[in-house]
Amino acid sequence: MAGACPPELAVAVAETGGMGGAGVLQFAPLRIAEWVEQFRAGSSGALQLNIWIPEPPVADPDERERRVAEAREFLGRFGTPDDAPGPPPPAFDAQCEAMLAARPTVISSIMGVFEPDFVRRLHEQGIAWFACATTLDDALTAQEAGADAIVAQGMEAGGHRGSFDQEAAERTDVGLFALLPRFADHLQVPIIAAGGIADGRGVAAALALGASAVQVGTALLRCPETGTSKEWAASLDGLAPEATVATRAYSGRLARAAPTPYVRAWTEPGAPRPAPFPDQLRLVGQLRRGEPDGMDEVNHWAGQSAALATEEPAGEVVARMWRDASGLLA
Ligand SMILES: Cc1cc2nc3c(=O)[nH]c(=O)nc-3n(C[C@H](O)[C@H](O)[C@H](O)COP(=O)(O)O)c2cc1C
């Protein structure tokens, strides 16, 4: 979970028999190395490093400019942006080299596939590649490109949707119960279920439907190791599945979040469409820098099973999920 993955959380998960993970999207190469060092100081367990695949910019520059101007004006109601150019995002290629150098158990991708040369190199080093997919077409593309396992992400999931074609994300919102049997019937590689799994019942159901493992996000967001802000943790407490919102308001890409005033504002009649990715992300970053105290609801990611997230330590959450699932499967 990019932005919600301190080494302490990964250590707690790995030490309980799971696979710890880091979303390195915003990490510079040096930070990737440091993070892995911190993880290894606490655990010799399995480790996954994850990154978003970059996409080509949106086609029509005039349309893009118009939408950026509209979004910028609308964002003015939340405060005054700091228009100074912020730090540039870390370079994807350098991040990939840093992930290889760190020799994790798994390197995983979302929103596309790696180049063949990178896949060859990670395999030569004995690292497995897990690729996130939200449709069978995308899963087959990833399998063909050499993915060793597919993360089947249902539309229940918190955070960003892993669609390869981001423009199609709303039209291809398949729930995990439909996605898993479809993947199981057509893929040769193992499947990892993600989306709305937050207790032993979800784990057991996913395994019964054809998954070999599960990937959990939202259920760990209230754990003490995660370091989620007080406001974010409170917005998850008792949050109904139907109250979560799939929104492009944070980054220009579709992501599931809690219904904060910020998110709701973008659904009001007359609100513009958010700017395309990555412009919306940049605009929100500028606003956040300009209003560091007033924008605490950016970004309250939440999956549809948020109400099942507890404040237990992460190791206890993972142990309970597996214990309860084992009981149900027996
Ligand atoms: C705060 C947060 C950040 C996330 N960041 C990433 C990410 O960087 N890369 C990724 O592949 N998935 C990311 N995800 C999605 C998760 O990998 C997973 O698909 C999702 O959490 C599963 O659904 P659940 O939240 O209902 O458990 C994120 C999810 C959350 C909640």
TrEMBL record:
<comment type="similarity">
    <text>Belongs to the nitronate monooxygenase family. NMO class I subfamily.</text>
</comment>
<keyword id="KW-0560">Oxidoreductase</keyword>
<keyword id="KW-0216">Detoxification</keyword>
<keyword id="KW-0285">Flavoprotein</keyword>
<keyword id="KW-0503">Monooxygenase</keyword>
<dbReference type="InterPro" id="IPR004136">
    <property type="entry name" value="NMO"/>
</dbReference>
<dbReference type="InterPro" id="IPR013785">
    <property type="entry name" value="Aldolase_TIM"/>
</dbReference>
<dbReference type="GO" id="GO:0004497">
    <property type="term" value="F:monooxygenase activity"/>
</dbReference>
<protein>
    <recommendedName>
        <fullName>Propionate 3-nitronate monooxygenase</fullName>
    </recommendedName>
</protein>
<keyword id="KW-0288">FMN</keyword>
<dbReference type="Pfam" id="PF03060">
    <property type="entry name" value="NMO"/>
</dbReference>
